[in-house]
Design brief:
This protein has 1240 residues and is of the alpha/beta class. It has 34 helices and 44 strands. Strands 34, 35, 36, 37, 38, 39, 40, 41, 42, 43 and 44 form an 11-stranded mixed sheet that branches. A 10-stranded mixed sheet has the order 13-12-21-20-19-14-18-17-15-16. The longest helix has 33 residues.
């Protein structure tokens, strides 16, 4: 609406499209009427056509008579000829059809005329809309005509000094063309009349503006009762469309008091075209004649209410009544009806035009001072938001939304000192935008020009009207300092070496486009930002009733875009998308580069409407940008360039300089000019005296402040203004993820996330323009987590953070943690937390196995009880690839861990592992792990999430990809963090700690269990549940190297057997080294052999006794089942150093081994490690192996290979891997017959 825009109105320049270019287009083409059909007349019948039927009739009669009179019989065939004659005659008498149906012809032609009339009326509507745009009704100036059109006409504009005086009829722009029809007598009368009427109806367009060119008439007379109304209309049109530098209005003789408010009435003598108005009813005739003769005016309009009033034969004489009549030397011509325009509306227009002004003429010296161009050469030094007032904000940012000056800023000056403006609006809104291109070689001043644009935009538009995204692909010097502007949504620099930042920028800009589309849709389904802004300024609300928020235009400036497209060609698609959709979303794109390579734009060229060419490297580049080689021929002076905008002509300019010292205009103090306060009537002599005194005041001086630059001053001032007004830019670009993230920084102010929802870091989501907490959800996707990453990428740190965050968000009643550290060893520090049950390193094989056994015990317990676990268990494995490598001692844990992965979720057990590569995790396990996180991999092509995103990841610890391929950063947990968490959770009871094997187990402790269990040989303490273990098969075999504790086990077995009742057990001891001589009571020893002979005797006696127990043929099945056919104690064959006894001595015993259970034989033996693999394939050990004895594989080496499916390895003395029932039970601490610290 007129009067709401208080910005200076820029004079029309070549960069702005002419008003006629913005008007609705005139109809094109031509209308052509088809020729009128010829008239159809009745033709006379030829005489021959009458005579032929008569002759034919006579001939037929004669033939028939002759045939009848001949008396001959006639053949029927003779009648064919007469019959044919009759048929021919009938054909001759039949009337012929007319050559055409005249009614149908007329219908077709009339339909053609109807279609022609419809096309003509549509053309008339277009023609009327075009000229109504150029010359709107005066009553529409205040509200209906956009304020962007105020003072839009320059001296060279085709519509300059044209005014509308009313509406009437004019010829159609596309008249109906009719070919020469020829003689009227030859035309169909109906069609001819219809054509004349149609052409007459459509060739005249009614309601068209009647326009007068005032520059063509030095004098105009308006006479009649509506003369003053027409004069008001002329004055307001001139004042609305022409600036005061072009049109001056002298109205003091007309009595139009309202015209005093017009800026054009202040100094009309200074204007290029001076218009004087005279009310003849108020002036004597002599005065009027003198005024017309000597008045220094380009046009004098004389007004009189008398229609008969006449002044001069050379004046344009218009009689204004209900119609406008022009009286000329050739006669009277009726023009049309005058426009209604009461004085109240004229005063309204004049009062509101009083606010408008041209910007101060800056840069006349060609200096290109940016502040002078912007009218900010008196920029305030106040930067304290507390001292800022609302008037300060309005003074700098009066509001440009909905005005012609929106997105229009000066960028420099022409060689003559005239300011050069660049209008970023699209052509439909009178601008040269919305997108453009800037090319300049090194040293051409390209960076300074871009900074000037940023400063100009920030100084003239508030953050609610404009936001900036500044991108510098190489380095960051171009926009250095601009990041502090309140308009800045993003400053993105140093992208050349950071591929992840480039992709992040792609997502950020794409996300901003999407955000704007969604905002327009949700706030009322607006078609574009123009409609949205108009609705917001009109007080519209969103569907929820809330006022619409400002949606500022977004200016995206990309420096070195050519380099960007060379390294990342897919960015061309983003730029094309901005070019295609930006105009409706308010996104403007300016691409700048040192050179422009062929083919790099990839379809973007058609969207770049304005071009800026600084000095180029070659004439070809200049020709490619501007179409001419002129930019190559520019001098080497930085900032010199050409602007190619809406018009085809180039504008030479020199860019302003904002990086230099700040200069301010300072006016010396002088005595004030005192005038009495009175009503403003007109610009009189007293006002002229005031203007002269002000002009005579001391001249302004220029002061330079070397401590700051123009850029810094504008940044500081706008920052303070925005802080006072509460304005800020919408952040399109959040700061990239930091190098490190502290644990305490990831949950500030966030609510409880829920059970087993663990915050561990930040997720960067540039598309959504936010950074969210990275939550690991252990309740979904199988409940397991896998983290893959190359060495030194933060895998162990991720596990530490996971456990620390769990400890902060869960109690010890909810979670227990076990950890196997096969990596850096940093997980041992977690043991300070009460939630951690135990941590084992890869070198502590026994503790590792204990953790696996204990977790498997949890799985088994839940499976047996069928109850929901109260406490969930977390098993961490740092370095899965190392733990289960083919050369690892713990490779046999693979099946156990696979079982944990498959059965664990049902038991509340969660597996969390890290690995250097996904291939190290078997598919059977990998498929069970639904949540996967990737840190930087050694080989990006191994990624299971996103190879392209993995390739762009920086080599920085903690940086990785979420399962959705979003970049994330895992927080770092320090020792101080763990200590703090330990203090915070100290009041919670610790979870049950990991049970470990005792270092010593006295045999007597297990023998005491005989009171509650059947007597058996104690083995030790161990197994998955770390419980006392006894021999379940009745046979025991200990294999180990020297010093492993074999003899100690034999001694313990002797002690345990000796503790059995004598009637139930007896021993046969074979002790080649006499290590157990006297260890057992004599009454418990059936035989003892130490030498070869005594060993043979003892074995012989044993075999005799056992043979006697073999069942005879008369033993019943029941006796066999009850083993009741013999009586006596169980016989225990105890052999130490089995390899020294030899298989030959035990040959007879071997034959009895298959009957051992029936005859009460139990074998307890020990053998050295060397050669045991071969011994197991035959002889005594081969027979014993078939009995599936309890085997204790003690300290050994891998030379013997796997024994009983167990791969031997180094073990401490007294430790062994127990095999029972054909399967490994686990590591056990074997019993000893002495106290800890003693020896056998």
């Amino acid at each position: 609406m007129l009067g709401l825009d208080h910005n200076p109105v820029i004079a029309p320049v070549a960069t702005h499209p002419a008003p006629a270019e913005l008007a609705p287009p005139l109809p094109a083409g031509s209308l052509h009427a088809e020729p009128v059909p010829a008239a159809q007349k009745d033709q006379p019948v030829p005489i021959i056509r009458v005579l032929i039927p008569v002759v034919m009739l006579v001939a037929i009669g004669a033939v028939m008579a002759l045939m009848a009179l001949s008396g001959r019989g006639m053949s029927p065939m003779m009648l064919v000829f007469p019959l044919m004659m009759v048929i021919g005659m009938v054909g001759l008498f039949t009337p012929q059809e007319r050559q055409g149906d005249i009614d149908e012809t007329r219908r077709v032609y009339l339909r053609h005329l109807d279609a022609l009339a419809v096309r003509a009326r549509k053309n008339a509507e277009k023609q009327r809309a075009h000229f109504a745009y150029l010359h709107p009704a005066p009553g529409e100036l205040a509200a209906a005509v956009p304020t962007e059109r105020v003072w839009e006409r320059g001296a060279h504009d085709p519509q300059a000094l044209q005014v509308r005086i009313g509406t009437g009829a004019t010829a159609l722009h596309t008249p109906v063309e009719v070919d020469d029809p020829g003689s009227p007598e030859d035309l169909d009368p109906v069609c001819a009349v219809s054509l004349r009427r149609t052409v007459a109806a459509v060739n005249a367009v009614h309601g068209m503006p009647i326009v007068v060119q005032l520059a063509a008439f030095p004098a105009v007379t308006l006479a009649g009762p509506r003369a003053a109304e027409l004069a008001r209309s002329i004055i307001c049109q001139l004042a609305f469309f022409h600036g005061p530098e072009l049109v001056g209005i002298d109205e003091h003789r007309a009595g139009f008091g309202w015209a005093k408010w017009l800026p054009h009435a202040r100094s009309p003598e200074r204007a290029q075209f001076r218009l004087s108005l005279i009310d003849a009813s108020l002036q004597p005739s002599s005065t009027i004649a003198t005024a017309i003769a000597v008045e220094d005016s380009d046009c004098v309009i004389t007004i009189h209410p008398d229609p008969e009033y006449y002044v001069d034969d050379f004046a344009l004489h218009l009689v204004c009544d209900e119609t406008i009549t022009a009286h000329t030397g050739s006669g009277v011509e009726h023009l049309g009806a005058p426009d209604a325009f009461p004085e109240s509306e004229a005063e309204f227009v004049a009062r509101h035009l009083a606010f408008y002004r041209r910007p101060e003429d800056a840069g006349e010296d060609g200096s290109g001072d940016a502040l002078a161009l912007l009218g900010l050469d008196r920029l305030s030094e106040e930067t304290d938001p507390a001292m800022i007032t609302a008037a300060d904000v309005t003074a700098m940012w009066p509001g440009r939304e909905g005005t012609k000056s929106r997105l229009t800023v000066p960028i420099g000056a022409t060689p003559t000192g005239q300011a050069v403006y660049l209008d970023f609006k699209e052509a439909a809104h009178g601008g040269a935008g919305p997108h453009g291109l800037c090319i300049g070689a090194t040293g051409s001043g390209k960076s300074e020009l871009l900074r000037t644009l940023v400063v100009a935009l920030a100084a003239t538009h508030s953050p609610d009207e404009l936001n900036l995204v500044l991108v510098d692909f190489k380095g960051g010097a171009t926009f250095l300092g601009c990041e502090a502007l309140p308009h800045t949504s993003a400053v993105i620099t140093n992208l050349e070496d950071e591929a992840v930042l480039v992709e992040r920028m792609y997502d950020a800009l794409s996300g901003e486009m999407h955000r704007r589309q969604e905002l327009l849709r949700k706030r009322g389904n607006f078609a574009n930002i123009t409609d949205y802004t108009a609705a917001r300024m009109g007080g519209a609300t969103d569907p929820d009733g809330a006022p619409l928020d400002p949606l500022p235009a977004l200016m995206v400036i990309v420096d070195e875009f050519s380099e960007l497209l060379s390294q990342h060609p897919h960015f061309a698609d983003l730029f094309v998308a901005i070019g295609r959709l930006g105009r409706s979303l308010g996104v403007h794109l300016l691409l700048a580069s040192q050179r422009l390579e062929e083919g790099k734009l990839r379809g973007l060229d058609s969207h770049l409407s304005y071009r800026i060419g600084l000095k180029t490297f070659s004439a070809a580049e200049s020709r490619q940008v501007l179409g001419v080689p002129d930019a190559y021929e520019l001098p080497g002076e930085p900032g010199s360039g050409y602007l190619k905008a809406a018009s085809p002509e180039l504008i030479r300019f020199r860019a302003a300089y904002v990086s230099g010292p700040l200069t301010r205009k300072v006016t010396a103090q002088h005595d004030a000019v005192h005038l009495p306060v009175r009503e403003f009537v007109s610009w009189d002599d007293e006002h002229a005296l005031l203007a002269e005194q002000l002009a005579a005041a001391p001249a302004e001086t220029i002061q330079t402040d070397p401590s700051t630059t123009v850029l810094d001053a504008v940044v500081a001032r706008t920052k303070a203004l925005a802080a006072h007004a509460g304005m800020h830019a919408h952040k399109v670009w959040l700061e990239p993820l930091p190098d490190t993230l502290a644990l305490h920084a990831i949950r500030r102010g966030e609510p409880d996330l829920g059970f087993l929802h663990v915050p561990v870091g930040l997720v960067d989501e540039p598309y959504l323009q936010r950074q969210d907490t990275l939550i690991v959800d252990l309740t979904s996707a199988g409940g397991h987590l896998a983290i893959a990453g190359a060495p030194q990428t933060g895998k162990s740190e991720a596990l530490r953070t996971l456990v620390a965050s769990l400890a902060l968000t869960h109690t010890t009643d909810q979670i227990a943690v076990y950890a196997i550290d096969a990596g850096s060893g940093s997980l041992t520090e977690l043991e300070v937390l009460p939630h951690v049950a135990g941590v084992a390193t890869r070198t502590d094989e026994e503790r590792v196995r204990r953790i696996v056994d204990e977790v498997l015990g949890v799985v088994d317990d839940v499976a047996v009880s069928q109850h929901t676990p109260q406490r969930h268990t977390l098993l961490l494995i740092d370095g899965w690839h190392a733990l289960l490598a083919t050369d690892s001692k713990l490779e046999d844990l693979r099946d156990a861990l696979t079982r944990i992965a498959s059965e664990g979720p049902a038991a509340g057990v969660h597996l969390v592992l890290t690995t250097q590569r996904w291939s190290a995790v078997r598919v059977a396990v990998r498929d069970l792990i639904g949540t996967r996180i990737e840190l930087a991999l050694t080989e990006p092509m191994d990624s299971l999430i996103d190879r392209k995103a993995q390739l762009a990841l920086p080599q920085r610890p903690g940086i990785g990809l979420t399962p959705e391929a979003k970049v994330m950063l895992i927080a770092r947990t320090s020792l101080e963090d763990l200590a703090h968490i330990a203090r915070v959770t100290a009041e919670q009871p610790r979870v049950p700690q990991l049970k470990v094997l005792p270092t010593h187990v006295h045999v007597r402790t297990l023998i005491d269990g005989f009171a509650t269990a059947a007597p058996s040989i104690p083995i030790g303490v161990g197994g998955p549940r770390l419980e006392p273990l006894y021999c379940v098969s009745g046979h025991a075999l200990a294999i180990g190297s020297t010093g492993a504790g074999k003899s100690t086990f034999i001694a313990s077995a002797i002690t345990a057997i000796a503790a059995m009742p004598r009637e139930h057990a007896r021993m046969v001891i074979l002790d080649p080294r006499r290590a157990h001589l006297g260890r057992a009571p004599e009454d418990m020893v059936a035989a003892y052999g130490a030498s070869a002979s005594t060993i043979s005797d003892a074995v012989r006696a044993l075999t005799v006794t056992l043979n006697s127990r073999l069942p005879d043929a008369d033993v019943s099945p029941q006796q066999l089942a009850d083993r009741s056919w013999w009586e006596g104690p169980e016989l225990y064959l105890v052999i130490d150093d089995l390899d020294l006894v030899g298989d030959a001595v035990l040959r007879d015993v071997v034959e009895l081994l298959p009957h051992a259970r029936d005859i009460g034989l139990h074998v307890v033996c020990a053998r050295k490690f060397g050669g045991v693999s071969r011994a197991l394939f035959g002889g005594f050990l081969g027979g014993l192996k078939d009995l599936h004895p309890d085997v204790m594989i003690m300290d050994g080496n891998r030379d013997e290979g796997a024994l009983f499916d167990v791969r031997p390895g180094p073990l401490a003395p007294g430790r062994a891997t127990l095999v029972q029932g054909g399967g490994a039970i686990g590591t056990v601490q074997l019993v000893a017959p002495f106290s800890e610290g003693e020896q056998l």
